[in-house]
């Protein structure tokens, strides 16, 4: 799917149904979702919102029915340089990353300006309508004096929040792109979705892996420590003005020393990271000081969490897990229930057809959507104990995902 730099940058950041229903292929003219066969007492009873899936250069907008199944999508051509979508907890907006530039071997410049765009769902069919745009970087002209030292610049969204967007850029420069600089981005968002000015925090060049993750619930940035330091994992608080304050660091996974760790998912102040000791493992940490708690005997590459509003209910964590038995590697989708102490209890496991690269819970926690490396989109229902039931599998439909809810903007006012 991606090389190390691309994975670090993205993390971060992209038809046939199992019930025998054919879907409109990408590129076909946009068509509205079919109406319910019979009248219903309330619009809220017929829809659980919209799932937006990026299949460049199209966005496929699926209406979610009350069972979590996806109705036939509306195909929308937004922009050829749109390459990532991110949602926000309230389901009001979709944030999107547009643009990147690169220098060709003949010295000419390709690509476009890097911008972040806020979209809102059209109340008629859920398709994306632009609300606001903010430029992050401008594409240089062919004659820009930086010459061969300017090579490429890309943009990725780390997290979309209720009143801010977090992102990062990767800048490769120097002869043969021998240097790399990563920058954290902070963009405030007004209640109506308009984007404010960009705050930037560059990290020392050639010292970072680019793996960053933001916990939008507590405004904390997690990242590996620089290469030239003692290694390990860092936690930095994101201040209201977008500046970063370093709070915690650790180079331990339980009692073992680690060289580095990749943040995977957070829930209620607990962080789970993929760490490298003698063998890869998932490590658990608590609080901003990153207190090591325990290690799981597994390897995970993608994860997401559903955190109920009630503290008495367990959080759910879904992970793509790689296991090896007798030299045979297997990919598994696992779901864990997390209690108030951060302990995980396995509640579900299955072997999907391919490795899962993206996971997204519905804001209600009742549905889970997964995209695998074969560009397959899978829809699950989630029961009260966290067990999954596959309801749909759609071929050639994978990409970055975001969910919006009907009337979410109206209800928020």
Which terms would index this structure?
mainly beta; 6-stranded antiparallel beta sheet; 4-stranded antiparallel beta sheet; 2 helices; 3% helix; disordered N terminus
Report on the structure:
The chain has 413 residues and is mostly beta strands. It has one domain (4-14, 48-412): YVTN repeat-like/Quinoprotein amine dehydrogenase (Methylamine Dehydrogenase, Chain H, 7 Propeller). It contains 2 helices and 32 strands. It has helices at residues 4-10, 408-412, and strands at residues 50-55, 58-63, 74-77, 82-87, 94-98, 100-103, 109-111, 114-121, 128-137, 150-160, 164-173, 179-188, 199-202, 213-215, 220-224, 233-238, 244-250, 252-253, 256-257, 261-267, 270-276, 280-286, 291-296, 299-306, 315-325, 328-338, 344-350, 356-361, 367-372, 377-382, 388-394, 401-404. The strands form 8 sheets. Strands 7-6-10-11-12-13 form a 6-stranded antiparallel beta sheet, with no helix packed on it. A hairpin with an 8-residue loop joins strand 15 (220-224) and strand 16. It starts with a helix and ends with a helix. Residues 1-44 have low confidence and may be disordered.
Helices and strands in order, then pairings?
Layout: H1 4-10, E1 50-55, E2 58-63, E3 74-77, E4 82-87, E5 94-98, E6 100-103, E7 109-111, E8 114-121, E9 128-137, E10 150-160, E11 164-173, E12 179-188, E13 199-202, E14 213-215, E15 220-224, E16 233-238, E17 244-250, E18 252-253, E19 256-257, E20 261-267, E21 270-276, E22 280-286, E23 291-296, E24 299-306, E25 315-325, E26 328-338, E27 344-350, E28 356-361, E29 367-372, E30 377-382, E31 388-394, E32 401-404, H2 408-412
Antiparallel strand pairs: 1-2, 1-32, 2-3, 4-5, 5-8, 6-7, 6-10, 8-9, 10-11, 11-12, 12-13, 14-15, 15-16, 16-17, 18-19, 20-21, 21-22, 22-23, 24-25, 25-26, 26-27, 28-29, 29-30, 30-31
